[in-house]
Write a structure and sequence with these properties.
Strand content: under 5%
Structural class: mainly alpha
CATH class of one domain: Mainly Alpha
Order of helices and strands: HHHHHHH
Distance between the termini: 109 Å
Shape: flat
Number of helices: 7
Largest sheet: none
Number of strands: 0
Length: 153
């Protein structure tokens, strides 16, 4: 009894030049793709783990990746507007139209959620209503009030 094992091609794996790969990957990410999707667009496609190691080891690449992530959130926000403005197909009626609307809502909500996670300060729903806390000394206020009373009398 033998088990089927996928044969690997003989030869070396392709050499991937980070200087050529990353501008393309970052461009795809800035246009709205996730890292894994952007990597799969390339031929040969670098592995996800290769990309994560590259990101971990290169601070300049980390900064460029963060900028691309912010651009991705902006692209997703633009997609939301385009989806919301889209007209339903003229041939849809009844349940088919309702299904189309529900699918559109799902697409919008997925993009809203992702944009809010990528850029929470811009697209997040949390409002920052924090108050600067300053210590108030009641004793000091009473002493100042007493001084005002004494000086005015």
């Amino acid at each position: 009894m033998s088990t089927a094992i996928a044969k690997r091609s003989a030869g070396r794996p392709p050499v991937i030049d980070p200087a050529e790969v990353w501008p393309l990957v970052l461009g795809y990410i800035a246009s709205g793709d996730a890292l894994a999707t952007a990597l799969q667009r390339l031929d040969p496609a670098p592995s996800y783990s290769w990309a994560k190691v590259q990101l971990r080891e290169n601070p300049d690449l980390q900064a460029a990746y963060r900028a691309a992530i912010e651009d991705r959130a902006d692209a997703l926000a633009d997609d939301i507007i385009a989806l919301a403005d889209s007209e339903p197909p003229a041939h849809l009626e009844g349940p088919a139209l309702s299904a189309w609307v529900q699918q559109l809502k799902l697409r919008v909500h997925a993009r809203e959620w992702t944009a809010a996670k990528l850029r929470p300060r811009v697209y997040g729903e949390k409002l920052d209503v924090s108050v600067q806390h300053t210590q108030i000394s009641v004793l000091a206020a009473l002493e100042r009030a007493e001084q005002r009373v004494l000086t005015s009398a």
